[in-house]
Amino acid sequence: MAEELKTQQQFDAFADAVASALGTHCRTAPLPGYGRNLARLIVDDEDRALRLRQPDAHRPQRLQVSAGLPNEEQVSAPSIQVSTISAAHVAREIKRRLYPLHAQAMEQAAQLTAYQQAEARARRAVAAVLPGARLEEEHRRTRITWQHVPEPAGQHRPAQVDSLSAVVGPSGEWVQVDACGRPDSTLPMLTALTQVPRE
Question: What is the pLDDT of residues 24-42, one digit of tens each?
Fold first, then answer.
């Protein structure tokens, strides 16, 4: 029969027993941020973070166990529902059901990170052809701003400003350009954008 965990103290003791069943080097810690729901963090012997929580106080024999990921904004953390039959049962279900999902999610997160780094390199390659340009990294885009005042100092007429503003899309696949100024200054910049080497 499943244990009914009704207090944080009972929940902490159960989480400690689950951690012991998972491995000799597992440890537990408080898990704030779940309001009135009972919760505890387990860090296993491979430094995987597991969040144990009781999502429904009216069903104290049910747990939700979710795996922690380094970047949960982009890759959703896998989770399982499990009964509190025993700490050994919960540990078995974590090993059998959650760990394979966690491994897949970690691989997906690593692939996403590598892809984003390649994207950033491609965007910077586009930006590199504009010497002296100011770069601003945005979400999967790079904004490039370049300005040049060709008039010599001390002249009393309005200064002519050559400017180029470009937004480079993901992986440098597209460039949106707004250019203004003298053709002899802005045209070489525009030409340079068409000659960016591809990875």
Answer: 789 999 988 877 789 999 9
